[in-house]
Design brief:
The chain is an alpha+beta fold. The chain has 5 helices and 5 strands. Helices cover 57% and strands 13% of the residues. β1 and β2 (134-141) form a beta hairpin.
Length: 201
């Protein structure tokens, strides 16, 4: 039975440590680029409220994508360091992905829906929206799902593909209909004048 080579083990540990450090450094550098892109978008929108919210949403999505890509690279590189032949693993993963393609159709649907939410600027972080009759504030948006917080403080996670009808209460103008009881015989012109005065204050 062959004994493990201590020198080789030390080299592998050092390479793994360098891989982790490199992944962390790349993530930090890309996060800096994303942050600068956010600032540029805010300046381009002249620091309007909606522009700031949209910039933060874009930054959040990009940071999530950066983290996933960097972790995937670090994992594959770590397997190579440990002596695994990653080519058969990648081929097997592609075959398994094809086999699971039908089961992953909902995931693909959610990602496509999330992409259109981003492109069409349907809502951003901070907007108050109503999804399937449930009103809540948008706390986070990814390509797969949206995290909401309702008025009771409950956290809601909604797959983007499940959003059939979305009402955005934070865009443009809104109309509030209020029933105002008026006693018979009152001067309606006077009532309208008083109501308009109260509304415009």
């Amino acid at each position: 039975m062959a004994h493990p080579d201590p020198e080789r083990i030390g080299v592998n540990v050092a390479r793994l440590a360098l891989t982790v450090f490199a992944a962390w450094l790349v993530q930090r550098l890309l996060f800096v680029l994303v942050h600068r892109g956010e600032q540029w978008l805010v300046r381009a929108a002249r620091e309007s409220g909606h522009g700031v919210q949209r910039a933060r949403t874009i930054g959040q999505i990009l940071r999530n994508a950066v983290t996933v890509l960097v972790l995937a690279w670090a994992f594959v590189h770590a397997l190579e360091i440990l002596g695994w032949d990653v080519k058969p693993l990648l081929v097997g993963a592609s075959i398994l992905g094809a086999a699971l393609g039908f089961g992953a159709q909902f995931l693909v649907r959610d990602i496509i829906a999330g992409t259109f939410i981003f492109i069409e600027d349907q809502f951003v972080v901070g907007d108050i929206i109503e999804v399937n009759g449930q009103a809540a504030t948008v706390e986070a948006v990814t390509l797969r799902a949206t995290r909401l917080r309702d008025y009771n403080g409950r956290e809601l996670h909604v797959p983007n593909g499940e959003m059939k009808i979305v009402v955005n209460h934070s865009r443009g103008w809104n109309r509030a209909i209020v029933d105002l009881p008026v006693s018979p015989g009152q001067d309606l012109d006077r009532v309208l004048a008083v109501t308009a005065d109260v509304v415009t204050r």
